[in-house]
Amino acid sequence: MKISLSKSVFFISFFILTGCKKNETEAVTEIKIAKNYIEYASGLSIVKHEGYSVVTVSNPWPNANKNFTYILTEKDAKVPDSLHEYTVIKVPLESVVVTSTTNIPFLEMLDVENKLTGFPHTDYISSEKTRALIDKGSVKNVGQNEKLNIEQLIELSPDLIVTFGVDNNNPMLDNLKKSGLNVLIQADWMEQSPLGKAEWVKLYGALFGKEEKAKELFDKIVTSYNQAKKLVAEKPAISTVLYGSMYEDVWYVAKGNSWVAQFMKDAQANYLWASLEGSGSQGLSFEKILDKAKSAHFWIATGSVKSLNEFAKMNPHYSEFDAFKNKTIYTFEGKLGATGGTIYYETSPSRPDLVLKDYIKIFHPDLLPSYEFTFASKLN
Questions:
Q1: How confident is the model at residue 99 (pLDDT cuts 50, 70, 90)?
Q2: b/e for 186-207, b at 16 or more Cβ within 10 A?
Q3: What's the distance, CA 223 to chain centroid?
Q4: Does the structure show a pLDDT above 50 at 25?
Q5: Residue-level pLDDT at 230
Q6: Rounded Cα gap, residues 86 and 69, in angstroms
Q7: pLDDT given for residue 10 in this prediction
Q8: Whole-angstrom Cα distance, residue 57 to residue 187?
Q9: What is the phi-psi region of residue 282: left when phi exceeds 0, alpha when psi lies from -120 to 50, beta otherwise?
Q10: Is the peptide bond before 80 cis (omega within 30 degrees of 0)?
Q11: In the chain, where does DSSP find H-type helix?
């Protein structure tokens, strides 16, 4: 939240007119402290004050009709009366339940995975560190996102449950709050900027009293991402790219402002649906896909397929694409954890720099000759 020049002039003029030196000092301090230190994430704001922080989560789901504000209070903090209407969360947390695998890397990056006490459908978690905690019983399976086991959550009594909503009708969230459980809605999944998704690590830094560590980690990711972009900056985007696969009778392609499309743009590739407005996906017929992408140089396929033969069995018409004939098909979803969770889904939002390097390795392999894929796999 950057303070405009006109607003700054107003504050200065006000205190000159009143001639109150003490208030001038306090106001200047407030201006310095009350700054949103989120730079890339569009749905998150964290404003740090003395002893407390104001966290605002906006656009928590598609077409959301409200934002959420939380007050993170340190011990003995004095919070203004005007903020008492919002949910108060005492920090640093000593225990937490999260409900998305994308949250797990954030906890591990900050070395607080041992604070995790519950997770819905624990088989989805791939990380070896957190799986070890699950195996020894430190992390309980608390049901499914749509049907969390409220009785078990009450028994666990975590300091906070970090969850998400998918639309404006969220009876589960209401039930959690009615049960007296502290709930925070997060929306990293709504971010379309690669660095915007990763910056949500700062929320966990604020929750666990590790703001400086979170900033340091994120700054390194930003540097790594920008270095990768610079590597391909002078390369022409001549490689045409097909994305997706058939799901039943529909082929879903990522729209031009989506997270996926941004990676391909930054990797200097010519994504064939880059001009499709929007940030989600659009379903198209097979005929339309084939007409536009039959001669595409590369194909980024969706799904955990392992080989071209396996892929062909899913749909015999796949062999009509040049990318199939030329064996230039890759998937980011082929690597699975010990219990079947998809590593890409869990880790990629927190490490966009590695995702970008994978894309660069696909489209411009000469630029990263010794780099090994983190997520991507080539179908052979």
A1: very high
A2: bbbbbbbebbbbbbbbbbbbbb
A3: 18
A4: no
A5: 98
A6: 6
A7: 35
A8: 7
A9: beta
A10: no
A11: 5-18, 21-33, 103-109, 128-135, 150-156, 171-178, 194-198, 201-207, 211-232, 259-266, 286-293, 308-314, 322-325, 343-347, 352-363
Per-residue pLDDT reduced to its tens digit, 197-236: 999 999 999 999 999 999 999 999 999 999 999 999 999 9
Contact 108, 97 (CB under 8 A): no
Coil, strand or helix: which one is 97? strand
The predicted model gives 339-368 an average pLDDT of 97
In angstroms, rounded to a whole number, what is the distance separating the alpha carbons of residues 162 and 19? Answer: 47
Inter-CA distances, 251 with 24, 245, 275, 284, 315, Å: 61, 6, 17, 5, 12
Q: Which residues have CB under 8 Å from 145's CB, separation 6+?
A: 99, 120, 121, 163, 164, 172
Task: Quickly tell me which residue has 């900050």 as its tokens.
Answer: 110
Torsion, Cα 104 119 146 56, to 10 degrees, reads -50
Residue reference for tokens 């000092």:
25
Q: For tokens 């009709």, what's the residue?
A: 65
Residues 6+ apart with CB under 8 A from 125: 101, 104, 119, 131, 134, 337, 339, 341, 346
Q: How far apart are CA 106 and CA 128, in angstroms?
A: 14
pLDDT for residue 151 = 95
Distance CA 17, CA 350 (A): 49
